[in-house]
Write a structure and sequence with these properties.
Layout (H helix, E strand, L loop, with lengths): L13 E5 L1 H10 L7 E5 L14 H9 L7 H6 L13 E6 L7 H13 L4 E6 L6 H4 L2 H18 L2
Parallel strand pairs: 1-2, 2-3, 3-4
């Protein structure tokens, strides 16, 4: 994309993802520093602990072709948290406290791992909302989370 579209400011490329996109955001920050800043929303970081989710065990079996109980090492290797020590990208973690699809502990694990490694990280928690914030959440919460994302990217603009 950067090669094709010359007008893109290569110093200011940002990334964000929600839910599965949050898993991908967590994976990205552990595998590249090409983004200026990222926002991980309602994410998963540890596929071995994700089994407490309302879809966890079946999701890991289906999407990552590995059962935590039968193939722990394989599943751990696919977990973004395993690669958190390589993260360098400033990352904002947004998580809804009542999210049972991607439990709060998932976002907190990645946040704490990169923060402890000296990466600029912030955690913004939304009370009273679930995984469906983005479709049916309260307007004030949707406005606030959009504001937090915009503010994070503006603060990290080069």
């Amino acid at each position: 994309v950067l090669a094709k579209y010359k007008d893109i400011d290569k110093k200011n490329v940002f990334e964000t993802g929600i839910s599965y996109g949050g898993i991908m955001t967590n994976w990205i920050i552990g595998h590249t520093d090409r983004f200026t800043a990222c926002v991980s929303q309602n994410s998963i970081s540890n596929l071995t602990s994700f089994t407490i989710s309302d879809i966890g065990a079946a999701f890991v079996d289906d999407q990552f072709q590995g059962s935590t109980w039968r193939n722990f090492d394989f599943v751990w290797e696919k977990s973004p948290l395993k690669h958190a020590d390589k993260a360098k990208t400033p990352t904002l973690f947004i998580h809804c406290i009542n999210d049972y699809r991607c439990p709060l502990s998932e976002g907190l694990q990645m946040y704490e791992a990169i923060r402890r490694n000296g990466v600029d990280a912030k955690c913004f928690l939304i009370r009273g909302e679930s995984h469906a914030l983005f479709e049916v959440g309260g307007p004030k919460h949707r406005v606030r989370y959009t504001h937090e994302i915009t503010k994070w990217f503006e603060e990290h603009k080069k």
